[in-house]
Description:
By secondary structure, the protein is α/β, with parallel strands linked by helices. Helices cover 44% and strands 10% of the residues. The longest helix is centred in the last third of the chain and has 15 residues, at 230-244.
Amino acid sequence: MPHEPTPPTPRPFALFPTAPQPTPVRIVVADDNPVVRAGLTALLSGHEDITVVAQAADGREAYEAASRHRPDVILLDVRMPGVDGISALPYLVPIAPVLMLTYSGEPEIVREALRRGADGYLVHGEFTADQLVVAVRDTKEGRAHTTPTATAALLTQLRDPSATAHVTPQLPTAVSTISPQGLSQLQPSVGQSLSDRSRFQLSAREAEIMDLIASGINNQQIAAACFISEKTVKNHINRIFAKLHSTSRSEAAAKWLGTAPGSNRGVG
C-alpha cells in the first residue's frame, strides 16, 4: 500500500499584522565638553529608536555635521568657544529642529534662543534622563519642551512685556545676514575664546569651570557637569580667583565676561 504524504502543517493565522519598527531619531550632539558629549551619546544611543549620527564641539562643527548628516534633531549647547550656540541657531534651524541643552538659564539667553528658532530649551539639572529622551522624541514631532527656568523666563515676558522691552540682552549680534560660508568667521560672545583664556592664564579645565560659574550654577552642579568632586571644584575656583584677582563669583564672572568696570572686552 503506497505511503501517503504527510499534509503540511498549517501556518498560524495572524490576527494582527506585525507593527513596523519605528524609524530611529537621528541626532547631532553639540557641546564643547567632550565628557558631556560622550555621556549624552551613550545615554541616547541606549535606546533602539535613537541614533547619534555626529558630535560637534562648537556651532561651526554643528552646522557642518547637520549639513552632512541631515539629522532629525540637533542638541545644542549655548556657551561654546569658537562659534557659540546662539550665533549658530539661524543656520541650524532650517536644517533640523534644535533643542537647546545647556547650563545657561539667563532669561535673556532663553528668550533669544527661542526667538531665533530653537524648538525647546532644557537647563541641566532640571530634567531626568527619561525626560530628556521624551523631549528628543517629541522635538522630532514638533512638540516643544522647556524646563522650569526657561518656562519662567517666557512667563515673565508674557505677563509683563514692558519689563524686558527696554533691555538689550548681551548676546551675539544677529547673524541672519551672514552667509553660511561666513559662519566660521563668527566670533564668540557667549563663552571664551582661546585668546581670552590665555589673557587670564587659565588652563582649559579652569576656563571650562569659569564658563560654568558665569552661567550661574553652583559647585555641586559644576562637579556633576565635569565629573569631578566638589572639593576639586573648590580648588579650581581658588586658583581661578587668584588669576582673575577676584574675591567672589560675581566679580570673577564680570571680569570673565568683560562686564567689569574698566574692562576692555565687550560682550554682544
